[in-house]
Amino acid sequence: MCSATNDAVRAAPGYPGLERIEARFVGNAYARHRHDTYALGVTLRGVQSFWYRGEVRASLPGQVIILHPDEIHDGGAGTEQGLTYRMLYLDPALVQAGLQNAGLPFVAEPVVDDVALRSALLEAFGDMDEMLEPLVADQVVTELTEGLSRRADAPPKRASLLDLVALARVAELLNHAGLQPIRSDELEAVSGLDRFTLARQFRARFGTSPHRYLTMRRVTQGRRLLAAGQSIANVAAETGFADQSHFHRHFLKAFGMTPGRWQRLVASR
């Protein structure tokens, strides 16, 4: 039988718009949280139990998990034998690009038996120690996008009314904000859109608000620095948070565990 000391997270080298992890847990792994990407996973061993959209769900080995951006969920092992799974976090903008800028497909059923989706995910996880080759990444995104569209409750709506150029400028600013605070009037100036139109269009394009998008960029960078062995206090300062406590709160909301636990799990693999 597994024990809590066997808990570990293994993060693969990053690729633009794609993050990959392999994790093993006993018991509850994540508190309720949400992130601004699609979360697509395959359960390898054990039962994965999680709360999502008002219900407790379960995924068995070989089944695919599909979580929509900004949907609150938790997760953990459903039995005493523990859990091993792999999860890919997919940027919604890549999905829209793959669908020629249609709206984001929503899949209501979070656990599916889908051979094509499972094969695409396992292809993405082929070598967890190496960065994805660009052609492989393009293939994976195409197959995942097609799978999401195929399983969506309704065909994705066209997004022809979105100002994609303006939204790209906003995302570029947020991606490179560094430690600088960003105000709504700056985003209005960059985009040429009023803040309310921008908020609606940004969510349609990226699956979340500009503020949460910026926060996620910072906590995601913090997660990488923690994995590299930096102290939590230094990471908080380097990623633009007011202090360690501020970083702790946002990290927990984004990833469902504390920065300290994440660092220990990555170090223990």
Automatic annotation (TrEMBL):
Top-level lineage group? Bacteria
Classification via SUPFAM superfamilies:
Homeodomain-like (SSF46689), Regulatory protein AraC (SSF51215)
A molecular function (GO) held by this record is:
sequence-specific DNA binding
Keyword annotations from UniProtKB, A to Z = Activator, DNA-binding, Transcription, Transcription regulation
Quick one: signal sequence residues? Answer: none
From which residue to which does any coiled coil extend? none
The record's annotation in InterPro entries points to:
AraC-bd, AraC_XylS_family_regulators, Homeodomain-like_sf, HTH-like, HTH_AraC, HTH_AraC-typ_CS, Tscrpt_reg_AraC-type_HTH
Q: Which intervals hold domain HTH araC/xylS-type?
A: 168-265
Q: What is this protein called?
A: AraC family transcriptional regulator
Can you name the source organism?
A: Devosia insulae DS-56
